Hints:
The protein is α/β, with parallel strands linked by helices. The chain has helices spanning about 5-20, 20-30, 50-60, 60-70, 155-165, 185-200, 210-225, 225-235, 250-265, 290-295, 305-320, 325-335, 340-355, 365-375, 385-395, 400, 410-425, 430-435, 440-460, 460-475; strands spanning about 35-40, 40-45, 75-85, 105-110, 115-120, 175-180, 205-210, 240-245, 270-275, 300. It folds into 4 domains: about 5-120, 2-Layer Sandwich (GMP Synthetase, Chain A, domain 3); about 155-300, Rossmann fold (3-Layer(aba) Sandwich), CATH 3.40.50.300; about 305-375, Helicase, Ruva Protein, domain 3; about 385-475, DnaA protein, C-terminal DNA-binding domain (Chromosomal Replication Initiator Protein Dnaa, Chain: A, Orthogonal Bundle), CATH 1.10.1750. Helix 5 (about 155-165) runs parallel beside helix 6 and helix 8 packs parallel to helix 9.
Amino acid sequence: xxxxxxxxxxxxxxxxxxxxxxxxxxxxxxxxxxxxxxxxxxxxxxxxxxxxxxxxxxxxxxxxxxxxxxxxxxxxxxxxxxxxxxxxxxxxxxxxxxxxxxxxxxxxxxxxxxxxxxxxxxxxxxxxxxxxxxxxxxxxxxxxxxxxxxxxxxxxxxxxxxxxxxxxxxxxxxxxxxxxxxxxxxxxxxxxxxxxxxxxxxxxxxxxxxxxxxxxxxxxxxxxxxxxxxxxxxxxxxxxxxxxxxxxxxxxxxxxxxxxxxxxxxxxxxxxxxxxxxxxxxxxxxxxxxxxxxxxxxxxxxxxxxxxxxxxxxxxxxxxxxxxxxxxxxxxxxxxxxxxxxxxxxxxxxxxxxxxxxxxxxxxxxxxxxxxxxxxxxxxxxxxxxxxxxxxxxxxxxxxxxxxxxxxxxxxxxxxxxxxxxxxxxxxxxxxxxxxxxxxxxxxxxxxxxxxxxxxxxxxxxxxxxxxxxxxxxxx
Length: 476
């Protein structure tokens, strides 16, 4: 057995192990042995024909990447399949025609003791005759860049999206991971990028799919034994837009297949766009190797729009609906409806409806009356700084003490309550919350929130703290 072959295969295994689950590695790669290395052709021994077929069916891409990384682009792989002695006389030598790019043969040869079958690598996902997809992109033609108002809260995401549309897969923003709270425009922007790609390069295959729909398709493909067709379909997309990727949480099978689709598209220079209500590091119950890939390109947060952006959105909406409103009215709406864009546009729709149905002019008095319940019942503009101040006043602590490294039980619980309410009442990510409350990481914030939930159920005194603080936060 060649020592060089062993060291090369060991390097390949290290790369493979970093890119698949530990269980899969132990099951399918640990039993493989390196046999020989000659002219950049590596021969590996696998236990059976089934083993060989399963590897080609499920792991050919990662094996190929590992070989190229270790031996270079000229690398080739040959399988040696150990056969039972009873099969030896039934296996005459033969060759088969395969693609010219492979430049390999399948043959049977005799070696010491058992018989081995050497096979060239094939790509199991190439379906003859299927060269280019013609599909409905599922993009909403109303969600364009023209009606996506730019502001400080979304400028980076919008600018990156415009660059991607000009050169999908050709920028460093791959994948583009857009995250925000609900109603702030991340889905709109994702559609806008896809539409712009189609406008500039009509020949490109663009597809928008929600994660919920993707999961459903995968389940149906698995049940009907069409898993490979499902994978191959997605591998042929030029620009893939996946909305609400956080819903992949806890779905191990879907994560596995999305991991391979993601790798293929990325390695092929295709564009991937993902949206989520959480940053990559805040998505729970998703394999770390997948989370790391979400962070390969650009992760950008869309924040709540500021006053100037809210005013611009209202003016555009007013122009689209053919309405004329006074600056006094627009100013009142923009200053009082701050939560998200959906509420902002919904408020304007309610005002227009009230005026139209009651045949009244849109005055400030009408607007105040129409929006009174919405403004009264909406959450206060609660910040992390405000929450920390409230917690400090309530427990008679200084801010330095709250944010300190001390492990005293009462201070730890006060700090955990600050993190809990920051997660509940702000749109900040777990990482941002942790950083502002004593420079902790997102895992500490997540643990704090779980601890508060548990103590709320089991500790009456602690429950009273939570209820009392909650009332103070939402009261006028």
